Amino acid sequence: MATRIRPSSKRCAVIGGSGFLGRYLVEQLVDRGYSVSVFDIRQGYEIPGVTFHQGDLCDKQALLAALQGVSLVFHCASPAPSCDDRSLFHRVNVDGTQTVLKACQEAGVQKMVLTSSASVVYEGTDIKDGKEDLPYAKKPIDYYTETKIQQERLVLEACDTEKGFLTVAIRPHGIFGPRDPQLVPILVDTARRGKMKFIIGDGKNLVDFTFVENVVHGHILAAERLRPESPLCGKAYHITNDEPVYFWDFMSQVLVGLGYDPPKYRLPYQLVYVLAMVLWLLVLFLRPVLQLRPTFTPMRVALAGTHHFYSCARAKQDMGYQPLVSLKDGIARTVESYAHLRKAA
Ligand SMILES: NC(=O)c1ccc[n+]([C@@H]2O[C@H](COP(=O)([O-])OP(=O)(O)OC[C@H]3O[C@@H](n4cnc5c(N)ncnc54)[C@H](O)[C@@H]3O)[C@@H](O)[C@H]2O)c1
Ligand SMILES: CC(C)CCC[C@@H](C)[C@H]1CC[C@H]2C3=C(CC[C@]12C)[C@@]1(C)CC[C@H](O)[C@@H](C(=O)O)[C@@H]1CC3
Known about the structure:
The protein is of the alpha/beta class.
């Protein structure tokens, strides 16, 4: 029989630690003196002192091997929203999260911090200063978000102070920063194809974009404040830059910083939404014979043309959260890091 290693409070595991957010989390944890194990289906980098366990989180035995002696687990693994694979989203985010919870309980893990998403309450219509008590979306914007809702419910319901297993969920929104594989690369690709000329709507919709280091700060604060008597047990927390910005100003600042023209012609929101819907239906209809990936999906149009910003008052009150990096500095650092995506002179 394998000997069980006693959990140490500074020993943690980051499931999804090879990803964009996960790697920043690992780097910050190491700087703060934690001993870190990464569990991921791929190994993307090496850091002295960090142990990598390559495996699928749906495999409980593989997880158990990585969770030996671990008292704190960060779960930030998910298939990318753009992969558009319903069965994979369900297998990893729902069934896989159940497996993670079982493995944590069997391995004697005491705390788990889940990376959820603020979009669990968003239905494609305006949210202004949304609080955590908004109901979960009845019609989530996509299947990825539907599985993020189920995942968050599972993790928060598993919180059990009597059994000594505490959980909390962090809901970031629009994470950006150096090494982000999603937001800036998609934006630049769209601009290079000449499709970033138009502003959808009046350009005055406010949105949260959150610098990755602030998201990490929220996760670590949550882990350190999560105790049996604390208000964090079984709760969700928005973590944002607390500086809502006009969606199109943010996009323009990144584009201009990288040498591209900002969008300037206005198009009515409803018109673009209906066009995106028609295109989407056409893509679905043609899917058996032709695989197309349109830039303007109804989901992206909704995100580009509505207000969606969230209050982080609860995180400020319960865990003393304050963003560490301003939006201005976050954008400057991000633009600087994407030299390879700059427009050729
Ligand atoms: N990027 C955003 O804007 C954003 C916003 C809100 C919430 N989130 C959430 O934050 C988390 C991290 O997102 P990210 O942007 O860093 O994504 P990412 O794709 O860079 O990282 C996800 C990691 O999970 C790993 N993974 C996927 N399936 C796995 C499996 N079956 N077993 C083990 N590992 C697996 C991947 O290999 C990857 O390293 C996700 O849960 C995501 O839903 C992201
Ligand atoms: C072609 C365009 C009009 C704009 C191109 C930029 C978009 C690719 C991004 C702008 C807002 C982003 C966003 C997400 C994906 C990329 C964008 C649409 C998420 C849906 C990714 C998943 C997260 O969970 C969501 C969250 O709650 O933070 C993101 C919301 C913003």
